[in-house]
Sequence to fold (466 residues):
Amino acid sequence: MIRAYFFILLLIFFISLSNVCYSQALVNPINVSIQVDGATRFQQINGFGVNANTRAWEGKELEPALNLMIDSANATIWRVIVETVYNWEDKNDNNDPFTFNWDYYNHLYETPKYQKAWDMIDFLNSRGITKNLMINFMGPVPLWMGGKLVKEKYEDEYIEMLVSFFYYARKVKHLQIGLISIMNEPDIENEGPTVDAKQYVKLQRKFIDRMDSLGLGDIHYVAPDVAGMGNGLNSYVPELMKDSVVMSKMAHIGLHSYAGYYANVDSALKHSPYPQTDYWMTEWNNWCNGCDDGMLGEYNYNFAAKSIGFLFEFLQHGATAGIIWEGYDSYYEHHAPSPFSYWGILAYDTATRSYTPRKNFYAFQQVSKFVLPGSWRVAVSNQSDSLTILAFYNETSKKLSMVGINKSHHPVNLNGTLNNLPVVTGFETYITSNTENVHHVADIKVKGKSFKTLIPADCIFTFTSP
Fold:
């Protein structure tokens, strides 16, 4: 009995101590001072966007989700997914890869799989998504071409199949497509055909030449869309840069990461034969265990904050765009037998057949809504280990926006100085936390070049000038 009483007293002591520590954290904020310097510029931002699966198009059902991502999240870059697994050129259209059998393709491209693609692209075009609408093909190729690889003897047939899609889209459906990524993650299995760097560049060159010959030379490319950033830098990108024709058509280097910035991309590109080449993160997120395999993930604030923390890493190291994986839950043939993919920043409810935002939608919105295309990342100095802040200035709108994460359990007293920037009179402030979603809190007044504010503990925040 005495032991039990002693244990209870000890437990009360530790609970009281933890409450005191927590209270002290609330009343003892960390003091941080920063300087924002508009004279020191880094990369110009092309925009932010989402990966979007055409298979999910079901008439008007998907439109509210697409509208939400365009209107609320300002998603200006769309990587539109078309799978190559089934119901494409399952049988050869003819024995001449340089002559389209249009009786075959005309029938093929009016089947439901492709009608979904045309309708979704048309809808996005109607919302102004054109030059930054990118088509990416995912999954293995028809079995006779090689299945999980592209047999060398069928390379031209493979190219003919891909090119026929774009010719039909442009000439028959009159759709606007600005960018193409010819395959997905060629450095691993099943996400696309597995091809090494030399074959990848050979296929890319064949594709470019064929498109040019058909009057489709205005479309540009994003490559190599590899799963491993290191694979891209060490193998695929150097091989791409050996072909001047390929590089003349290259809009952006495309890379993927679900573990943050772990390869020296920025420096490698700046010291390459094409130092003006920029890179997009065409797939990025925090890794979600089971989400590819039909299992729901953890969609809490911690997951969302880690995901956006990765985006900040990419932006700090020169990325000009971030395309999150993925826009909404959907089904992928090349992930079979998985019943569904649950990576979406919008969750799909099968009962109501509707889409609703998850926490990482709001986290993404903290950046995408306020950092406008064309903005320049400018210098921010004297940050702390637990506080990350990035600043962006847009010359057209004259807006200065700062986005950041407070990783500490303490609030932060932030003192800021604005140098070499046009006059800023104040900032609107928005936060996303465990309990808030892009919540507009008290505005910040700027006096001269200085401002002060209190940043709550454990939150993603945005300051944006009116």
